[in-house]
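Components:
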Amino acid sequence: MTIQRIGVMTSGGDAPGMNPAVRAVVRMASSLGLEVMGVERGFQGLMESAFKRLTVRDIGGLLSRGGTILQSARSEEFKTITGQRKAIHNLNAAAIDGLVIIGGNGTHQGAYELSRHGFPIVTIPSTIDNDLCFTDMTLGVDTALNTVLDAIDKIRDTASSLKRAFLIETMGRDSGYLALMSGIAGGAEVIVIPEAPMTLAQILEGIQAQYTLGKPHSIIVVAEGHRPSTQEIYEYLHAREQELGFTVRMTILGHIQRGGRPTAYERLLATRLAVAAVQNLHAGNYGVMVGLVGNKTQLTDLAQVATCHKKVDLDLYAMANMLEFGRAKTIPTPLPTPTASRRANFGEMRPKTTKEELPPEAF
Ligand code: F6P
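Structure:
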């Protein structure tokens, strides 16, 4: 099948990097002589034929813009077979031969369904949660991390000035990635993630251990998906301020993590993934996601991506605890023991991998 006209759409939660990816899709397609149709509002737009022609003149200024000019949506109707058939019908009617879909976990389930109907699809992973398998990074993560770090640095100023313990909640419904990485990079005293849940008493103990070390503040980064929730942790600690030695405050960062100017890393990643997506679609390699593994773009079948949920690296969690509690008498959480294979990768470059070589447990 010859691909002459492709569609590009963004779906699910917006993420910085989506616009630079749309830009690179249009530019790459144009240099291959392909026409591009933008699909507005994700799967919803597919079902409503919300298509518009995109040329290189329509994509100026996108490298530095957050959000998505194509807009996005979360669609329930598309989960039904009727919704999917409507989408295929509309794509065929608009003479669109293939589609680049940019989005996160939910989006990949939808993209897999569409590709099972035989429609040529290549996807680009994009979510600030970084919880898609078969890619080291997803679009949006680097910018979101920098936003969280900026907040941690600023909040620490107040925390130290007033001897406070601050709970800072990051996004991540099912993933502790943003909390863990920002906690490490921001020097948080305690990191609380759903993949290694802590009890209220353990969190209290962690803060007390830091107080005993003479710290003038305590920063506790909590992932949105942790249970007990940030609010419950706050209420528990607030009622025990005397015992703690710190007064307690809470900041929920919320959607400021999803917006903003894409970082340099983000723009480069978006451009590389988008170029590879268009090249592969054009070459007839579809039904795949383009990820970044070991700093190389890599294709993985959508069937594998759609059925996998990436967990945070617990070795990094153990490392963070080691750094914070190495001097303390007590360590509030059991430190996960690195497995032999993980230990081999601790602090080393990941070996170069190919699609065939990747064992599922590598993620
Ligand atoms: O999946 C990205 C994400 O930002 C999650 O971290 C968060 O839980 C969720 O989306 C929020 O979704 P919404 O913007 O629809 O409230």
